[in-house]
Write a structure and sequence with these properties.
- It is a single chain.
- The longest helix has 22 residues.
- By secondary structure, this protein is of the alpha+beta class.
- It has a domain of 201 residues: FAD/NAD(P)-binding domain.
- Strands 3, 4, 5, 12, 13, 14, 15 and 23 form an 8-stranded mixed beta sheet that branches. A 7-stranded mixed beta sheet has the order 10-9-18-19-20-17-21. It has a two-stranded antiparallel ribbon with strand order 1-2.
- Helices cover 36% and strands 19% of the residues.
- It binds nicotinamide-adenine-dinucleotide (NAD) and the ligand CC(C)=CCC/C(C)=C/C=C/C(C)=C/C=C/C(C)=C/C=C/C=C(C)/C=C/C=C(C)/C=C/C=C(\C)CCC=C(C)C.
- Nicotinamide-adenine-dinucleotide binds next to helix 2 and helix 16.
């Protein structure tokens, strides 16, 4: 069939005039053309508006074909129509996608893949050249480095909270993983060292042996965490902004939902203080929370603390063979396998708003893409400060920015070292705070260290290990420096951190280095496209647990957010949950899932009101 010679219908035609037929395996003769098969599309996906858009797209497509522009898609709707999805001239009529996702962090990818498997046509726009954002990877001199943390929660084959495993399975991926016997080895002031073993009882015994007088308090505090975790684990996790699902869960699991509702506004620090008095043990709980949220226990929602403190024993921490980057790569591949698309080097500069509704995205190279819904995986500060005009900040976002600030960015050092510098049985993850508990939250105060080659040797050339060292660091420390001073400061700060580890953990570390690369907050701002290179949101004051954290809908119709500045916050599994929630809400709004507009209005109103109480 000559797709370019097909006819056009009259512009007045409606969906009833059209018959949607699959194209089968038809191949395009134009090497730039992609031919999509729309057999799974239901007519309801084509409103009048869309049909007109397609027709308009045909004319444009033909013109562009003559100009040798790439066609993006071909739709067979009885007569063959061609349409293109992007436009440099900004015609709103070429709307084609159900959703555009700005950013391919795990949050964005999970939202995109979940939508794609529900039958939506999704376009992901990623500024960088590979997917993953903070969960990406990079390769140098035979080393494969994880960009961010290597601690992967929610990656087991058990229960309902293994959201990473579930997200991959949804697009037909199952990854080989390596179980980590120790989530983290803490090296704390006063020579207090403790390993968080995979086996819960082993960890608790070790903790009780250090604080025998607090045995009961320890059991009670972690007992509350288990109560919350078990409640979470009993639910089917979907959008808390979708009333049919939410009320359904309350009906099916009333006790568990009430437990979660009760703990939703509470923090780990208060709960710990109900049972524990020893200041050093409370400081340890602070350190436990700090690695979850970059703030102390008084500021860490108990639901988030419980999630992490129990999943590490329930499903355990598992590392993907080949590195963390494999997760994003698999999700991106899964997305494309579902018939959706991902564009790299696609730097979104603004969200196009028409009649108060988000309808498209404009890129820095001038291209524009249109969709029924826009999902931003950029932080809320970037979304409402850069992609949308700062001056038009909706009240909801003002409230968010009042309750949460950007956590400081971080300094990270990726090292390749000679393997023999590490003692046998070295753990994969370490948290180091040498002398003074007061330094826990200070910039450069505590050090995170991951050695993923302890689990997967294939990440480094034989005889070597990878060390990923990171610590909090504000971007202000790195601005206004000349190139020379900036480079010198990088060297100096890295040297100090490496010396601390050389002294505390691995004597000889400095002289065993074969590769070193230092990333500053500016590096993270640039490559992760996160405002000030922020690690994520942190509460300005003591929060009411998770109550103030916004979900996925925004004050702008058709615009959704996903990622760590949405409920439940920082963490790969947390952003995966945000992706699941977002996809469910968007699917309901575009007619791929059940929806009740009256209940929607009521629930969204109540949730908005609850946030004002926080
Ligand atoms: N910072 C770390 O060290 C680290 C490491 C691992 C995991 N994590 C976790 O990952 C979470 C973040 O995950 P996430 O999914 O929310 O986001 P993310 O920051 O990982 O990914 C966002 C993606 O969006 C892209 N992007 C941003 N603005 C864009 C634009 N204008 N145009 C096109 N692309 C754009 C970025 O390039 C990036 O790939 C953090 O909370 C953290 O807990 C962090
Ligand atoms: C809707 C209302 C008002 C009421 C209804 C009640 C109800 C049904 C509530 C339901 C709530 C739900 C379902 C909540 C779900 C919450 C979830 C899934 C939370 C998940 C949180 C996960 C977190 C916080 C994970 C964090 C992980 C992190 C940050 C890991 C970081 C690791 C490091 C930084 C590395 C450390 C590294 C070294 C080297 C030590």
């Amino acid at each position: 069939m000559d797709i370019m010679s097909s006819g056009l219908s009259s512009p007045q035609s409606t969906i009833s005039d059209w018959k949607i037929r699959p194209l089968g395996n038809q191949k395009s003769r134009n090497p730039w053309q992609k031919v999509y098969c729309f057999d799974q599309w239901k007519p309801r996906n084509f409103g009048d508006h869309q049909i007109h858009g397609l027709e308009f797209g045909v004319k444009r497509a033909k013109r562009r074909q003559r100009n040798r522009f790439p066609l993006k898609s071909v739709v067979d709707v009885g007569k063959v129509l061609e349409t293109e999805s992007s436009s440099t001239e900004g015609d709103r009529n070429s709307s084609f996608y159900d959703a555009i996702v700005i950013g391919s962090g795990v949050g964005g990818l999970v939202a995109a893949t979940q939508l794609a498997v529900k039958g939506a046509k999704v376009l992901v726009l990623e500024k960088y050249v590979i997917p993953g954002g903070s969960s990406g990877f990079y390769q140098r001199d035979g080393f494969t480095f994880d960009v961010g943390s290597s601690v992967m929660f929610g990656f087991s084959d058990k229960g309902n909270l293994n959201l990473i495993t579930q997200a991959l399975a949804a697009v037909g991926c199952r990854m080989q993983v390596i179980p980590d016997p120790t989530t983290v080895h803490f090296h704390l002031p006063n020579d207090f060292s403790i390993q968080v073993h995979r086996e819960y009882n082993k960890f608790i015994s070790e903790l009780v042996s250090k604080f025998p007088h607090e045995r009961e308090g320890i059991l009670k505090f972690y007992g509350v965490c288990w109560k919350i975790f078990n409640a979470l684990n009993s639910l089917e996790l979907k959008s808390l902004e979708e009333p049919i699902y939410l009320f359904g869960q309350f009906f099916k699991k009333p006790l568990e939902c009430l437990t979660l509702a009760y703990y939703l506004p509470q923090n780990a620090g208060n709960i710990a203080r109900n049972y524990i008095k020893d200041p050093e043990l409370l400081s340890f709980i602070d350190a436990e929370c700090f690695i979850v949220s970059t703030v102390n226990a008084m500021q860490t929602p108990i639901i988030n603390a419980s999630m992490v403190m129990c999943d590490r024993h329930f499903g355990g921490i598992n590392y993907p063979v080949g590195g963390i980057g494999e997760i994003a790569k698999s999700l991106a591949k899964g997305l494309v396998d579902q018939g959706s698309e991902i564009l790299y080097k696609a730097n979104a500069t603004s969200i196009i708003i028409e009649d108060g509704k988000a309808v498209g995205v404009k890129l820095s190279d001038g291209r524009q893409f249109y969709a029924k819904t826009i999902i931003s995986n950029a932080t809320r500060w970037d979304t409402f400060g850069k992609l949308l005009k700062k001056e038009d900040l909706p009240e909801e976002e003002k409230r968010f920015q009042k309750a949460y600030v950007k956590a400081p960015s971080f300094l990270s050092i990726h090292l390749g070292v000679k393997a023999d510098v590490l003692p046998p049985d070295t753990d994969c993850h370490h948290f180091v705070l040498e002398d003074d508990w007061e330094n826990l939250e200070k910039p450069y105060g505590s050090i995170f260290l991951s050695i993923p080659t302890v689990l997967d040797k294939s990440l480094a050339p034989e005889g070597n290990h990878i060390l990923h060292i990171f610590t909090t660091s504000p971007i202000e420390n790195w601005e206004g420096l000349s190139r020379k001073d900036y480079e010198a400061k990088k060297e100096l700060v890295a040297e100090k951190l490496i010396s601390r580890l050389d002294k505390k953990l691995f004597p000889g570390l400095k002289s065993s280095i074969v590769f070193k690369e230092v990333g500053t907050p500016k590096t993270h701002r640039r490559y992760l496209a996160r405002d000030s290179g922020t690690y994520g949101p942190m509460p300005r004051r003591t929060p009411k647990g998770l109550l103030a954290m916004p979900f996925n809908t925004t004050a702008i119709s058709g615009l959704y957010c996903v990622g760590d500045s949405c409920f439940p916050g920082q963490g790969v599994i947390a952003v995966a949950f945000s992706g699941v929630m977002c996809a469910h809400r968007v699917a309901a709004d575009i007619g791929l899932e059940k929806k009740n507009p009256v209940l929607d209005t009521a629930l969204l109103g109540v949730l908005g009101w609850l946030r004002t109480l926080a």
